[in-house]
Amino acid sequence: MSTVILVLLCLAIAGRELYLASDKRLPRAQKDLHELRAQLAELSRRHDALRAEVAEAPAVTIPQPPPQPPPGALYAAERPEPDPEVLDRLDELTTRLDRLETGLGTLSSRLAEADLDRAAGHALARSLDAAEQVIAELRDEMLERLGREEGVVPGLLLSEEGEAEALLAGAYERCAAEYGLRVRVREQRSASGYLGTAFHLSGRRADALAEELFTYVRGLYDPQDPSALAALLVELAKLSGGGITRIGAFTAVRTPNALLCGLLPEDLPEGIEPWDLATRLGELPEDLRTDLTWLC
Length: 296
Fold this sequence. Notes:
- Residues 56-79 are annotated as: Disordered.
- It is built from 6 helices and 7 strands.
- A 7-stranded antiparallel β-sheet has the order 2-3-1-4-5-6-7, with helices on both faces.
- Helix content is 56%, strand content 16%.
């Protein structure tokens, strides 16, 4: 099962990269297509005008040579030459027509290429959408099975404008592993200027895990505590802006002036601000919250 999901994820990532590459070309191809069609219309108009001009040009009449003079004549009759101005005009028109026909051929080729690029982009987009749908269905099925067999714990890690995102993510995943959790799904999350990751973790039941985490934090007194949970809270305390970390109901919130921790319901609305969470934590009974501002 895991191998199939990994293969599908790799295919989706590769498809996304190809789609992004082709998608970047689509606006340019559409712009080129519009310009090419305008040029084609203009060249066709000029072509028709030149054809009409050629049709209306005066015909060149070359008179028949006069009879040859009888033998012994001193001078032969001279043949009249066609009008040079008319010949030059005809040559000019012929050259311009040749250029127009060449330009029309080039434009037709470029239009065909643009149409092919657009069709390929649409086909790739449809394939990518289908792959994403399959992956989403497999992910939901996997989480449903894990929820029945091992338990699934939702997690969240956000910081203002993604501050220290890599450090926080590393500390978060070490903390999860310390408490017997495995990261099953990571999803990029952004809301109200906060960037980070939403997690689905498996291996523990959410209620018992949240109580265990909160009990440990309430007994925390040393910022040099060697536990991964303490390291995660210290990284959160170092943020200059706001931040949120959640493992199930266990919630820690960093505001510019405080670091609060407690147990909040798991089904809080997405995009909730750290200050709102801090307010909710402050309203909890004392046995469900603790103040860790001293870590800051």
